Amino acid sequence: MLGWFRFMKKLLVAALGYCKRRPLDKMRRNAENGDAQAQYTLGMMYYAGEKVSKNYPEAFLWLRRAAEENGHIEAQFFLGMMYFEGIGTQQNHSEAVRWYRRAAEQNYALAQYSLGFKYLKGEGVPQDYTEAVKWWRKAAEQGFAEAQCNLGQMYFNGYGVTQDKTEAARWYRLAAEQGDNLAQFSLGLMCFNGEGVPHDYLEAVKWYQKAAEQGHADAQCNLGIMYSKGLGVTRDYEEAVKWYSKAAEQGHAVAKALLDLAYASGLAERQGKS
Q1: Which DSSP symbol is given to 161?
Q2: Among 69, 92, 145, 250, which residue's CB has the most CB atoms within a 10 Å radius?
Q3: Do residues 258 and 225 make contact, with C-beta atoms less than 8 angstroms apart?
Q4: What tens digit of pLDDT does each residue of 162-184 get?
Q5: Per-residue pLDDT tens digits for 7-44
Q6: How does DSSP assign 10-64, residue by residue?
């Protein structure tokens, strides 16, 4: 979800940067007079508690005005998010879909990504994998990493599209190169198994390592296995234990079992052992 949070942060930073350059009273007058950017910015100010006390219902009111009266695209998306989360208003998945769609139809990638999830889960719309793929593809083609990763998963599993592991690997790679840790892990697994890409332990280690360094527990466990067995790397039990430990700390059951086995077999010593 790094891209999603990155885009959300970008929205907040842009809106709050706009508000810092303008007096609050003038911003409010402009908003009341129908200025779309002022309405949107005032809504974001109430959402974040910037220059005003945090007030979600007031944020909702101004964002709705910007979205309805002026078609402000970021306001449309944010309004959908507030309906989805039930922030400042009652949770309403159908309304979330309606506002996501209005922004998505204007090629807004974050809304396209969010709308794809609504179709995947059947929230506010009938569950429809083909529609999920449609909207994720639109976001993915704009470089949205999470949508690229999700599209890879759909191709890998044959959900909403004909199964195509080569195409899955292509989308995983695009997302992985942007730092998406789930895509990095998934691409590493495909390299390990030779699915959609040539069988390549070195490449598997490369992508496991990138995901593991971002805290992906499955990647940490698999990287430990690669070091334990000397696959794509020089065998190194200390390094294996290091990655098993990181995954086990996150509650990864397989990593914990492998860590216990390493201790029991004498391949590693528990920290603090005298």
Answers
A1: S
A2: 145
A3: yes
A4: 999 999 999 999 999 999 999 99
A5: 666 666 666 665 566 678 888 999 999 999 999 999 99
A6: HHHHHHHHHHHTS-HHHHHHHHHTT-HHHHHHHHHHHHHTSSS---HHHHHHHHH
